[in-house]
Every structure is written in C-alpha cells, then in structure tokens.
Amino acid sequence: MSAVPYNRVKLARDSSRPTGLDYIKNIFKGFIEFHGDRRYADDPAIVGGIATLNGNPVTVIAIEKGHTAKERTYRNFGAPHPEGYRKALRLMKQAEKFGRPIICFIDTSGAFCGIGAEERGQGQAIAENLMEMSTLCVPVISILIGEGGSGGALALAVADRVWMLQNSVYSVISPEGCASILWKDASQAQAAAASLKLTAEDAKSLGVIERILSEKEIGKKEFYDRIRTLLTEEISELSNDLDLIGKRYDRFRRIGVNAVVKE
Amino acid sequence: MALINFLKPKNQLEEGGRTAAPVQRDEGEPEKNCPNCHKDIPLSRLWANDLVCPCGYHFRMKARQRIKMITDKDSFHELYSEMKSGNPLNFPGYKDKLETVRVASGEEEAVICGTASIGKQNCCLFVMESYFMMGSMGSAVGEKITSLFEYATEHRMPVIGFTVSGGARMQEGLLSLMQMAKTSAAAKRHSDAGLLYIAVLTDPTTGGVTASFAMEADIILAEPEATVGFAGARVIEQTTKKSLPVGFQKSEFVLSHGFVDGIVSRSNQKKLLSELLKMHGRE
Fold first, then answer.
1. Who's near B178: CB < 8 A, 6+ residues apart?
2. For chain B, which residues make up each domain, given as ranges?
3. Which of A240, A261, B255, B265 gives the lowest tally of CB atoms within 10 Å of its CB?
4. Pick from B177, B142, B146: which is nearest to A206 by CA?
5. CATH placement of domain A4-259
6. What DSSP line would sit under B2-39, residue for residue?
7. Quick one: which H or E segment has residue A57?
8. What percent of chain B has pLDDT over 90?
C-alpha cells in the first residue's frame, strides 16, 4: 500500500501552505471584500469580493483557514457555517448580474459540524449552492488549494473548470473518518487515504478535475504569476462559449456513469 | 373405570376453557420493541398498520412496501432497475459488501425509481432503501435519480421522492461526492421547466443527500420523529464537546427551524400527496 496519498493529506493540511487570502492578494489587484449573507451573519471562514484579473473585474471567493493560531480560531479553521455558503451564493448571483467571471479557492476539512450550523440548515445551504451554481451564466473556475473536504468543498466547486494544486486532496470523507466508520480504527487512516483515491492524479483520472497545478516555487511570485496566466487564458476561452451552462451540466452528468453496471 | 375418572371433563370444551374458535396467543410470533413506548408490538399488527406503532412511532419501512402503500394498485412501473454500482475504485471489501447486501435486502441498489399514480395523479417516483447500505448514494443511486429527473423533465411530469440516507457512499470516493452535484443539476433543470418536485424525508435523511436533492424540492415534507440533518449527531458532539439539545435533528426540530413545510404521518401521506399533485396539475 502506498504511503503517498496520506502524505498528500498531511501536506494539504500543512499550516505553512498559502491560504485563500494569499492567492487573492497575489493573483488579483484591488480586492474589495464584501461581507455577510444578508440573512444571518458574516462567516469569516469564507472571504469574498471583487477584484481585477489583468484589468478585468472578477468575483473571487475563498475559504480561508488563517495562518496564526489567532487567525485560525477566527476563521474557524476554514470550516464554514451555512451563512458562509449563503454569502458565497449571494456574491455569485451578484457576479452573474454584472457579468463577472467567478473564481473560487477551496481549502476546508469540511462544512462545520455544530449545533448552530444544523439549526441554520447546513445541508440546505450546500444543496442550494449546488443547484444554483449549475445554471450560473458566467464562467466559474474553482481551484482546490489544500483540503477539499466533501460537500463543504463541493459547495464552491460546481464549476466549468476545477483545478487542483499538486498536493491538495479532494475526498468524500476524511481518511480518519472513513477508517473509523469502516474499520472502527482511526489509525488505519493511511490505508483509507489510499483506498479513497483522493489525490490530484486520482481526481484527474476519475474525470473530476481538468488540471493539476504544479507547486514549484509555491508561495513565490512566479507561482502566482503562473496561475494568473492560466486563469486569464481559461476565462477568455470560457467567456466565448455560448453553451456554458449546457457544458457544465454535461461535465457533471457524465461523472460516475462508467461506474454503473447495467445488467 | 374408577368413578373419579368418569367425573373428569373429557375435553377442553367441557372444561369451559376453550371455544370453538380458539383465540390463543401465538407464542412464536415475532414482536418488535417500540423505542418510543417501549411496548412489544406483534409484527402482524405493525404490518397491518404500515409499520406505525399504536403510539404513533414510525418504524423504518422497506422501499417496496412503501411503494405499495403510496401508489395506486398496479400503477408502479419501475425504471432503471438494471443500473447498479460496480466497484469503480476497487475499494477493499466493497464487492463482498455489495453481494451480501443484495442478498439480504433483495434489492440491487439503494433507490427504486419509476412512474406511478398516486390517487389517480401520475408522477415519477423514487424511493430510497434503508436496508441497502442505509440508502447511501453511490454512482448508481446518483445515475438513477438523475435519469428520473431527466425523464420527468422530458415528459413534463412531477417528481415525488422519499429519501432515507446515511449520505454519500464512501466506498466510491469522489464519484459518490460528485453525484450530489449531478442530481442537483438535474433537479434544477426540472425546476426551471416549471415542474413540481416534492420530497418526503424519512428516518434518517442525512449527509450528502440532505445537502443535495432532499433539500431542493418545492415542497419538503417529513415523517414524524425522523432524523434530518447534515452532520451525524455523534460527530457534532465530538467536534463541539457540547451535549445536544433534546429532539436535535428530529423532524419537529427541523420544522421549527424552517427547513421543512410540514410533518405528515404515514396514514395521511397518500391523500396529501395526491391533493398536492392535483393542485399542481394542468387541466
């Protein structure tokens, strides 16, 4: 059994990795943050607003984990509440109204598991994002930069293009959670990580993502410049697509079809 | 013959202890203990009452039995029964698990789809199966539900869905997760076509199913006392180190927080669904 997948999980969780705000600051210019879901509260675990990408306005949304202990507590370790997902959706609808492309950066162990989150409809908030994102009429690109934890990550990833950093992971459940449910033993996480097929290479071969982004010089100017160039090219291509929504539907429609046996 | 024997009753009738039609307690009949009233209820009585205890507690119900309860006689026509999950990730133990569950449940997958009439109203219907890996959603469940929404959109039919699920099926990894997006997109197309979707949440509806098509209906109903939530109660307790409020994640809790339209007991479901379908029908 390969140790690589679980090592990737550890790398993806490493607190020294760039977080959502680092990407926003280094790739875009003139970021203006917008707060609140207009229904209940502002969730610091999700940051969103407008900025320019090579001079063109875009909406950017990022799950933010924070770097220092204080920041991480304030950001709830990047575990969003329903109001975070509702803020994200509000900003996406705003982007649609003004014809701005949307770029999401995802880094979460999962949507927050808590009493308040359940009381305010964590499931409903995610469900609404999945439904509404499927028909947004502007280009959407989502990039997994660290952890892609289940529905809490997918709620910002119903996109035309989904990319993953080389050492990011994307999974239906954490390897620890999977091991403790299936084998009643959280220490089997390494085996679970290998079985879950959660690495960027796995996701690409399953047809879940389009591109793996190299982590060469991660955090340096060259790294961000490279992502900016890729985003600019991709958005210009998607902006000329007259069947954006149809293609987004097909993109998700075909996932898992080959996993179904017909007999 | 001794006189004493002559005076003894010859049979049970003469003893007065037995009538022509003997009513005797069948000691062998299995009973189920009701978690609500804690009484032992004979299974025959539960079956005659759609698996509802006299105290009102709703036991879990097999999908086929529910279809029989909710649809008009002989009106159900199954679709996509040929679709079932393989083992796309070669996940350890999954193949054996599927084989065991298929034998034990008598079903090939965790959802049954088809068309039916309910109180003479035609609709598309999906019913999830709790006895198949607790209704977990893998590629086949996602594909069947997506196909049903597409069928309903094409034929301009309403969709009624009974949900029961522990969430996404982890043995199919990311493919399971993506079914949340896939089913949601199909439900959205159906909705955008102006068509009705009613979900009935049954015990338990959690995880990735709550966070997708269970919460996307125009009208969301729930069975009494059903657990409806996103995260598991145990996980929440472990994460927050707080004890959970009484009735947490029960239908009544979810209703009071504004996430379902109403709670409807089994005995009223068919009538209500047929009325709702009728009110959304086009003459």
1. A154, A208, A252, A255, A256, B142
2. 32-59, 62-279
3. A240
4. B177
5. 3.90.226.10
6. -HHHHHS-SSHHHHT---SS-----TT--EEE-TTT--
7. strand A56-63
8. 80
Residue A131 near residue B216 (C-beta atoms within 8 A) = yes
* Cα angle value A97/A102/A103 (rounded, 5°): 165
Domain ranges of chain A: 4-259
Q: Residue B125: is its pLDDT beyond 80? A: yes
Q: Is the separation of the CB atoms in A112 and A81 below 8 Å? A: yes
Burial annotation B185-215 (CB, 10 A radius, 16+ → b, else e): bbbbbbbeeebbbbbbbbbbbbbbbbbbbbb
pLDDT digits (tens, 9 = 90+) for B91-123: 999 999 999 999 999 999 999 999 999 999 999
pTM of the model: 0.93
With CA atoms as reference, report the closest residue to A53 among A263, A252, A228.
A228
Amino acid identity for residue B126 in this structure = F
Q: Which of residues 164-223 of B touch A (CB under 8 A)?
A: 168, 170, 172-182, 184-189, 191-192, 206-208, 210-216
Torsion of CA B98, A261, B140, A203, to 10 degrees: 100
Binned average pLDDT, 10 residues per bin, chain A of 263 residues = 89 95 97 97 98 97 96 97 98 98 98 95 98 98 97 98 98 93 86 95 97 96 97 96 97 95 84
- Residues 76-135 of chain B with CB under 8 A from chain A are 82-86, 88-89, 91-93
Tens of pLDDT, residue by residue over B152-202, are 999 999 999 999 999 999 999 999 999 999 999 999 999 999 999 999 999
d(CA A80, CA A63): 8
d(CA B46, CA B32): 9
* A134 min Cα distance to partner chain B (Å): 5
**CA distance to partner chain A, nearest, from residue B66 (Å):** 25
> B62-279: which CATH number, 3.40.50.11030, 3.90.226.10, 3.40.50.300, 3.30.40.10?
3.90.226.10
